[in-house]
Amino acid sequence: MQAKELKCKIAGIGAWGSYFDSWQALQQLLGGEPLPETKNKGPKPTIIPANERRRAPLPVRLAVESSWQATQSVGLEPDTLTCVFASGLGDTELTDYMCRTLASEHKELSPTKFHNSVHNAPAGYWTISTGTMSAANSVAGYEESVSLTLVEALIQCVTEHKPMLVTFYDAPVADVLRPILSNQETFAFSLVILPVNAATDGIEVTAEVTAAEQPAWPALQSSSEYISSMYADNPSAKILCLAELMATSNGNKSVTMPLSQGTSVSFTRT
Amino acid sequence: MKIDIIDYETCSAAGLNLKALRTSLKHHNSGLIKNNLPGSDLDTWIGLVEQVSNVNDLGHWQSRNNALAALGYEQGTIRQTVAGLISKYGAARVGLVMGSSTSSIDRTETAYTQLDESGNLTEQFKQPFVHNPHAPSLFMAHLTGITGPSLTINTACSSSAKVFATGARWLETGIVDAVLVGGVDTLCLSVLHGFNSLQLLSPNPCKPFDQHRDGINLGEASGFAVLQRHGENSNSSGISLTGYGESSDAYHMSHPHPDGLGARLSMTQALERANREAADIDYINLHGTSSRANDLIEGQLISELFPGSTQCSSTKAWMGHTLGAAGITEAIIAMDTLNTNIIPGSKNLETLDEALSLSIKASDEHKVCQHVMTNSFGFGGNNCTLLFSRSE
After folding, report:
1. Using CA atoms in the order A17, A20, A22, A24, what is the torsion angle rounded to 10 degrees?
2. Number of helical H runs and strand E runs in chain A
3. Do A102 and B109 touch (CB under 8 A)?
4. Domain extents for chain A?
5. Which superfamily does CATH assign the domain made up of B3-390 to?
6. Bridge partners of B201?
7. 134-153 in B: which are within 8 Å (CB) of A?
């Protein structure tokens, strides 16, 4: 069977990292503006009730903050969106806490930390905070987390005609695991993706999956050292190649990402 | 919608493969044993797959979780089926979707017990492809030779139910011609001591839906199914996926919605997608963890939504709650009733919870079913229902 055209509209964007706290601020960095002098402290998404927010781990707060920004930018009620949350590395600080505790004599885990350790904790906090009862997926694809999740979300948007929220987030890796998972940057990015016939304005994008031998991630246009190092090491920051496509209407019209060992996916602004 | 199930296999404490599971189900032989997991002295019962410890030649892929995935993949005809599809369509036209909650955290736990004097990972544990949540799919792509898209779904205990929904959507858009879906989760200290911290473990063999149930037993399992668009291949199983539902509770991270609102949504969506009425469903394999809250809420919901002619059971007393692998394990038990014509009883049920009035009993029922369902609910309020039908 010939693959169907995966066409949809990107209508809202949210972003959060150590040197940007919005999509607008990230666009300025991508455009060559210098880094701000001070680093942001962790995000404090007010949509999570205060008592829950205090206990929410960094990956959860990252994901919820950028998701909230994306839905607010397009003016849609969060509970109307079907969501897909993706992280390449998960919450390694909680993995570290659990494994340290379990390697010790007293193996008593905190029940809150245990339920927060599930990969779908951000999806859980988001749906609870916003009253979203639609499907919430939580996925991982290691280095290909971004491309796999985009394909998954576009497919769900096209086959089920659902407006989608897609959020990528990865936080710095705990010390013990850092020699094998090198990410030291904080990054979250969200997209509101709508069916192509939706009434809301947005940038039309078509995705095409094709066979490819050992595809590689494309080079960014940005020459910022901070952006490049994040793009290399933070699995979620691989979305920056699509973000550059979104940031300007007079640059490249298309970007191709590796999807698996034998396939790639191209996203074209139409 | 109609997606053919070309082949399926399951591996758990109740049977190394589907054939052995059928025998255990028929003779009501449970695989649960007193907890003997090394390093854990918790007073509970577990569903351990003993043969996993024999799989120790995986090199830099080694983990208990990957070992259980490899063991499951050796069973039945699943390996041959996948190899046949790769040669027919090409490796890049076959997709892979795995569900797991622990991925390979068992290996990370072990690594932390053997850190060097400076607190660093020792050489044999420097396994980037293992210590990450995508590990099950990375490993299975390596093992199978599948080079099409491969995604891991980690939505706790609904993970390997949701793989069927994702696989079906991938097929519907034509980005692949076949999908291997699977689930794998292994017993490890994180889950045993984690569920213990929530006071959910039972010191006895679990008794789903029983008045005197006192908690869950954890287990481990792997399972696989091969999906294709209806009619594109000979379907020897005679079974199709005809509906699925996915929803969120929007209520609490580790407690189900008191009125089961999210679970209701996932069940009604599955019926709508299959264009079926509740009365069409012959059997439901319930999530039925044997926790006080889940069974009460799920049981009440079932009696609201389904007539008495819909027979229900929880099969968790055979192999325990296998978490991220429970979805596919129970999907296979549910769909296999379409081949065996035996609805398994709800093992260990003696006295039904007096607040409940659904059609559930300890003994088996012989019936030629047409449509069957299975529920999977996970932490974060993540729900999935699958509906399987006899292919016409």
Report:
1. -140
2. 9, 8
3. yes
4. 6-269
5. Thiolase/Chalcone synthase (3.40.47.10)
6. B216
7. 134, 137-138, 141, 147-153
- SS3 call for B342: strand
Cβ pair B390, B369 in contact under 8 A:
yes
pTM, entire model: 0.98
ipTM above 0.95, yes or no: yes
* Angle, CA of A84, A162 and A136, to the nearest 5°: 30
Domain limits of chain B? 3-390
pLDDT tens across the length of chain B (392 residues): 899 999 999 999 999 999 999 999 999 999 999 999 999 999 999 999 999 999 999 999 999 999 999 999 999 999 999 999 999 999 999 999 999 999 999 999 999 999 999 999 999 999 999 999 999 999 999 999 999 999 999 999 999 999 999 999 999 999 999 999 999 999 999 999 999 999 999 999 999 999 999 999 999 999 999 999 999 988 778 999 999 999 999 999 999 999 999 999 999 999 999 999 999 999 999 999 999 999 999 999 999 999 999 999 999 999 999 999 999 999 999 999 999 999 999 999 999 999 999 999 999 999 999 999 999 999 999 999 999 999 87
Residue whose pair of structure tokens reads 């590796």 in the numeric block: A258
Number of inter-chain CB pairs under 8 A, A vs B: 231
Q: Is A6-269 in CATH node 3.40.47.10? A: yes
Minimal CA separation from B370 to chain A, in Å = 26
Task: Work out the minimum CA distance from B100 to partner chain A, whole angstroms.
Answer: 10
- A150: tokens are 């985009």
CB contacts, 8 Å: B169 with chain A: 152, 155-156, 159-160
